[in-house]
Structures are given as structure tokens and as C-alpha cells.
Amino acid sequence: MISNGELDKCNGEPSCGQCIRSSTDCGWCSAENYDSFRCALIGNLNKLGCRNESIEFPKNKMEIKQNRELSWAKAASINEAVQIKPQLIKLTLRPKKYETVKMFYRQAVDYPVDLYYLMDVSKTMSKHKQKLAELGNELANQMGLITKNFRLGFGSFIDKNIQPFTDTNPQKLKKPCDECSSSYGFKHSMSLDTNVTKFIKLVKESPISGNIDAPEGTLDAIMQAIVCRERIGWRKDARHLLIVTTDADYHYAGDGRLAGLIKPNDEECHLDSQNFYSAGNEQDYPSINQINMVSQENNVHIIFSIIREKIAKYGKLVKKIKSASLAELSSNSANIVDIIKGEYQKLTSNIQLVDNSSDHLRLTYYSSCLKKGISDDNLNLVQPPICEGLQVDSQVMFKVKIELISCPNRVSERKEVIKINPIGLEEGLIIEVNMICECDCEKTKETKKHISKCNSKGDYICGKCNCHQGSFGSDCACDGDDRKSFEECFKDTNDTEPCSGRGVCKCGECKCYSVKGHAYTGKYCQCDDLACEYVDGQICGGITRGECKCGKCECTDRYTGSVCECPKSSQKCIDPVTKTICNGRGTCNCGKCDCQQSYFGLYCDECPTCLGQCPLYQDLIKQQINNGTLEMTSSLTLTSTNYSIISTLVNDLKEDSRDKRCQFVGKDDDCAYMFTYRYEDETLIKPSLKNKISENQRVIMKALKIRKCTQPIDLKAYAAEYIGTIVVIGLITLLIWRIITFMLDRHEYQKFLKACANIDFPEVNSSVTLHFTFLILTF
Predict the structure, then answer these.
(1) In a domain, 552, yes or no
(2) CATH number of the CATH domain containing 557
(3) Listed residue (162, 170, 207, 166) closest to 189, CA to CA
(4) Is the dihedral of CA 252, 257, 260, 266 positive or negative?
(5) pLDDT 10s digits, 152-173
(6) Entry pTM
(7) DSSP H/E element including 104
(8) Range 413-420 contact pairs with CB under 8 angstroms and sequence separation of 24 or more
């Protein structure tokens, strides 16, 4: 049986393409002779009668096209370094279904570096220019320690040579200030080269100039320095660094309108034969978003070296450019070498991935820093996609989750090429994405046109007629200029399909689908007469309790409740022992007792000091323990017939918090019996009735298998045992007394002998001695 909720997740979509875009679990049935939901959960289409060969259910597909192994450190010296793998992947994506791509990176030593120095040469920057010329050799030496494959370039900028940014008075235009030359937007002075002497010379020779307003044309200069790849000399396989030094704010898109420049920046290279920016007075400044895009597309990392007073301003700019960083420039640029060295080391020791994906795709990065030779299995990957503290030959594994979140309206935009690369590197992973926004049956050349199934008034696509203008209906059989009769099949103006998506419109009348487990009815097939909840395995409890009408239970006079689960009678709340409703300790609601505080139980018969129903089950327990069987007795027939008993003999009576403990002594055998009981709904016993309502109760009983019976006293055995015990105790006492007296006498005798041995007697004649000895022996 298919639930209504399962179908509603997918059904209602009018075409195969819209169906597969609605959910990753939805499929479309393109069979010709099919009269049910065409869009449904993939697991339900077979149940609805659609064969596998007619089911449209596209899946993601990934194919690695190029996967060269990563190079070790020395490979970069011969310009063959491979730092990223794989290099090319073809990916077919279904909407809302993501695919995970593994990407590996290993840093190589002596990887080529192109550093282009872009400097503001307004009058206030004269001391910075002088210091840069002095530090040219040191900059080259320090970068040479990092990589031997290093090239340096130089360019300068001021602002647009037009009012209101520059004074266009002929004299001021030629010499805007003392010791100044004419203003210009951007000038490319030196292409990327290893000639440090030339760099120093050109920096010194760069003339100082000025303009009227405070902001400079910084973004104009950055745009030209990035997009004029050939003139600047950016190498394809190199790390690209653009150093921007200024002490002023910047103009951005929209400011050019002050000078009447309404043409947007075209992101093209406009350097004349003298390497000056020639279109500065013809088009607006670039937007920040344009700078962000071209820096990523050309893999140029911008380092803004800014004085302290402007750090806050440029800090906001850097946050909007993925491939950019910010450093504070000292008052005379003395720390410029340290800035460049530090930013480069930070850039190479930390890897962060960027991409050029559109808004239709969502890329989520997870990374884990790995040491050389360590497997990537079972790693705890985290966001964001940054790995810090890398060294040469360190290998990092990234997992990129790619998800198609929406389909472009234009078919031409459904193929997209994504490039994922570390900031500042040209090398990256290319992913060719093919977006599945239509089913194969919609774009196949076999689509049948004007066939008889659509009455020659429509195109038969994916098993369904798409009617031409002036015709409508499931088979385009209905005619009408105003479609009024067809609109009569729509219950609401917001409906996307006629007949609530549960039937077909036959010239203004709905013919409802016949689906197992559902009974669609109503003018618009809006009702499901099998969509009500079950009670005791039947809809609305069966016909004696209620009937399902349009998804709601209509109860008989004897029952009430949303699913007719509540009897109106209080009979089920009457205690079979006391014959009272809930024992006067509660109210009967829906055939069950709602007890007052401190009372509980089926009939509010339980409390800390109550007997409860213990007497009711005594005979049953005694019978089960004595005979091992359980039979209905006269005492049980007094209870409600709407519950059954489950009784179990146990060796150890472990109580549940819901159990009532009982103990009694049998009148005929003087044996003590112990048992527990509790009441439970069948919904707690039968998994098959889960989520369905039942009014039947079960009595769960546990009885202690071993009874404690009183045994008669044997007086003779008791007397003999008593006398024997006394005799044994007397003998033991006498023996102990004799041992103690013997030990005491022995001890006294030893003392006497010792005393006699120590007496010093005077000499006497032998007769006296003999007489004394005789006396001693006699004693």
C-alpha cells in the first residue's frame, strides 16, 4: 500500500523534467498505456504498474579524463611541475543530487613567480617611490632565496585625465603641480623580467604627477595590469602576484558618471603603443565584482600595500575580492620588502581553493593537511578549504562536494566549465559539468508529433500529450478557443495540474485515477476516501464506528473523536470489582480514566497504599504456578472483555516502574505468592499496529515461579537436635577447661624448679644433706 504522503512528495509535476527537478527520489513513467501518477517516488512507480524500462530516473555520473601524477620538488626546475591532480573531470549532475570529487595538491620547490609592482605616483607618494628604487636589489635578492625562477615588472597610475578628476586647464594638464608631469590613468613601464637594474632605473625615472580629487584610479590600473596578459608578460605556469601601493582612496563603478562616462568597463586591454591606458576617458571605472572575477579568471593574487590611515577602507575591499590580501605600508615604504616576502610565504604555506562556478552550482570544500606518504582514508575533513603550514612536498587532500541547486532557463547554459585552483596559481582542476534538467524522452529525436494518440492536436512526449494551442485534455480531444471547460478541472487557480494531479481531465470533467490503497473521489479528485487513520486494523475503526469521507472520519452515534476512537459510553471505565466509574477518583474520557492526582491505573485503582486489582488476579496466578497453565475463571469474566492477559513465570521478579506489586498467602496451602501486573495498549505490543490507534488493553503479568510455603515442625527431630547441640557444647567446654588448667600447672611447676635452682645453701654434713634431699623428694 502506498501512503498519500509518499505520493504527494512527487505527484503533481506536469512534465518529466519538472519531476526529476522536484526531488532526487522522484521518477517519471513514460509508458503509453498508463493511467496513474506519472511522477512518483522511484520505489512506488513499480507498485503503480510502471515497468522498469519505462521509468525515467537519471543518475549522477563522474568520469576522470586526465589524472597525471603529482610531481616531486625538482620537477619545477624544468617547467614540468604537476601540483594538482586530477586535472580534468567530466561530471553529469542531477538537480539537488551532489557528487564528491577528491582533489590532491603538492607544492613544488622553485615554482615560477611573476611579481608585478603597481604604484601610485601622485605627489604624496614621491618618498615611497624613492624608497622602492633603493630597495630594488634587496627585493630581488630576498625573492631569489625563495625561488630561483622569479621575474619582476613595474607599472604606475594616477587617475583619469578628465574633469572632475583632473584639472583640464591646458597649463594644469601639462604640469598639474611643481615638479610634476602630465597625469595619466595607467602606464605599463616594464614587462615581467629578471633584469633588476632595469626595474630600479624605471622606478627612479617614473615622473610624479597629481589630480584634483583625493581618490585615485586604482581599479582602472588593476584591471589593465591583469587583463593585458601578453603586454605584462604573465606566464601560464607561474604564481602571479600583483603588488598595489597607494596612500589614497579608490574610484569604482559609477564614479565615471560624474565625467559623463556611462559606458561600463569592458574588461579588455587598452594599452596604446606607448603603453598608456587609452580608454580611460571613454569608459567607467571597473566594479569591485569585476576585479574579483578577472583576478580569479587570470589567477592573479592582489596584495594591497596601504598606509595605516587607509587600512580600514581597503580592508572592506579585500573582503570582497577572493584572491586578495592586505598589509600595512610604513610611512616611507621601508618595509615593502618584508611585506612582499611575508605575503608570498603566507600565500605558499597556506593553500585556499577558489572557483568560477555560477549561482546554479554550489561547491563546498573540506580539507585535511597531510604529511608526505600518509593515506587519506578515514580523515576528519573540515571547512573552510584552507590548509596552513605547508612545506615543499607536503600533500593535501581536498574533498569538493558539487551540487546542482537550480537549472538554468537557457538550454545553452546547462553545460558549464568550472575551474578550481589555489589562489595565485594558474594550474587547477577543470570540471566539465553537464546539468540534467530534462529527461532523455524529452530531448530524443524519437519524440512523436501529431500522432493519433494525441488526436493529431499535440506532441506525444514522455508518455503524455502536450497539446497545441486551441486543444486540451489528456489526449487533446477537447476543443475550445477559451479553454473554459478545461479550467473547470482546476479546483484552485494555484493548481499546476488538473484534477488535483489525481486524475485526467476529459473535456471539463475529472476522471480520477485508480490507485491501490487510495480511493480518489470528488469533482476535482480532491478527496481520498482511504486516507483516514486506522483503529484496530480498520479505517475509522470499521463501519460500526465510522466511515471515511474525503480523508476525515464521520462517526456513528456511539463513537466520537477524530478517528472514531472514543466510545461515548462510560462502560469501559467501570471497575469490575467496585462497580464504580474510575472508582470515583477520576473522569472517563474516550473510554479511559483520567485519574486525580496520586491515583493511577486502568480504573484509578492504584496508589502507593491501594490494593489495586491484586485480589482480582490471585486465583489466576495460583493456578498458573501450581499447574503451569492459565485459564479464564469466573473472577476474570467480571472484567471488561476488551483486554487480554499475558502472564509469564519468572525466576526473578524484576519490577518495572509501571508495575503494581502484589503478594498474598493461599488459604488452602499457606504458601506465599508474589506477582506484578500492569495495563498496556496493544499499540505497545504489536509493531504492526504502530502509528494506529487501538482501544484494546492488555494485562502484562509476571509471577515468581517459586512460592514460599510454611512447613510443619518435627518435635522429635527438633528435641534430638537441641540435646545433641548441648552435649557437644558441654564436651567442648570441658576440654577447653582441662587444657587451660594443665597449662597453668605446668607453668607454676617450671617457676618452682627455677626458684630452687637459684637458692644458695650453706655447707652441712652429709647426714643433714641426705636428710634434706629426702625431704625434698618426699615433697
Answers:
(1) yes
(2) 2.10.25.10
(3) 207
(4) positive
(5) 999 999 988 888 888 777 777 7
(6) 0.52
(7) strand 99-106
(8) 413/358, 413/360, 416/357, 416/358, 416/360, 416/361, 418/355, 418/356, 418/357, 418/361, 418/363, 419/355, 419/356, 420/103, 420/353, 420/354, 420/355, 420/363
